[in-house]
Amino acid sequence: MAKRSPRRTDALSRELIIQTATDLLDDGGETALTLRALTTRLNTGYGAIYHHVADKGDLLAAATDDIVTRVLAGVVVDADPREALRSVALGLFDAIDAHPWVGAELSRQPWRPTLLEFYESIGRLLDALAVPERALFDAAGALVNYVLGVAGQNAANARRRAGGDPDRAAYLATVAEQWAQLDPGRYPFTHAAATRLPEHDDREQFLAGVDIFLAGIATLR
User: Fold this and answer.
1) How far apart (Å, rounded) are the C-alpha atoms in residues 90 and 73?
2) What is the per-residue pLDDT for 72?
3) What is the mean pLDDT of residues 51-68?
């Protein structure tokens, strides 16, 4: 008979459970996170897991909160508001890029406490940039939706590639070839953009969008 791995004898913390869940999610996506896989990885029983989390949904939410909290903790409070805003927006973009499952979870539960903290952080920084009160709500909503929308789309693309779809370079090359064959008289911009599509950097393009937003809100003062 195969020998069972000995049960762990040290204390099992919620933090360790969340980190292990994060590792499973990063390795195989949401389907890889099961309580069975978690107990195996931690050499423990179901009861020890349930002492800290209610179920898989609770665990996935906790792992997402942990990632977003790290992003917010990395914001330099006394930095220039414009640079701090770029930093927090890019931080969440990078976090979702590194952990695609975070984007999916945030879309399912868009007003989790940590996401509210992100929204609050954006609002404070926009206020520090002297955005008029009448425009503050709309400006904050526009930026938060931009960050989550672009990052979420990139995460969805990453999940499709992990599922066996063509890699990013091959996909963009195919789309660029289709764009290049369009009638330039009817689609002048798209036809011209075909030359730049295969080589563009998603991260740089995302940050360019944040800078366009910042240039726009400067006119509101």
Assistant:
1) 13
2) 87
3) 92
pTM for the full predicted model: 0.84
3-state secondary structure the chain: CCCCCCCCCCCCCHHHHHHHHHHHHHHHCHHHCCHHHHHHHHCCCHHHHHCCCCCHHHHHHHHHHHHHHHHHHCCCCCCCHHHHHHHHHHHHHHHHHHCHHHHHHHHHCCCCHHHHHHHHHHHHHHHHCCCCHHHHHHHHHHHHHHHHHHHHHHHHHHHHHHCCCCCHHHHHHHHHHHHHCCCCCCCHHHHHHCCCHHHCCHHHHHHHHHHHHHHHHHCCC
**Can you give the pLDDT at residue 152?**
84
Quick one: CA dihedral 75, 113, 22, 140, positive or negative? negative
With a CB cutoff of 8 Å and minimum separation 6, the contacts of 130 are: 221
The rounded distance, in Å, linking the Cα atoms of 100 and 153 is 9
Rg over CA atoms, the chain: 21
Query: Mean of the per-residue pLDDT values for the chain?
Result: 88
| Distance of alpha carbon 149 from alpha carbon 39, whole angstroms | 34
Question: Residue 107's closest CA among 66, 73, 154, 168?
Answer: 154
Domains of the chain: 76-218 (1.10.357.10)
Confidence of residue 153 (pLDDT cuts 50, 70, 90): confident
Average pLDDT for 132-149: 94
Rounded distance between C-alpha atoms, residue 190 and residue 52, angstroms: 52
Residue listed under structure tokens 């091959």: 170
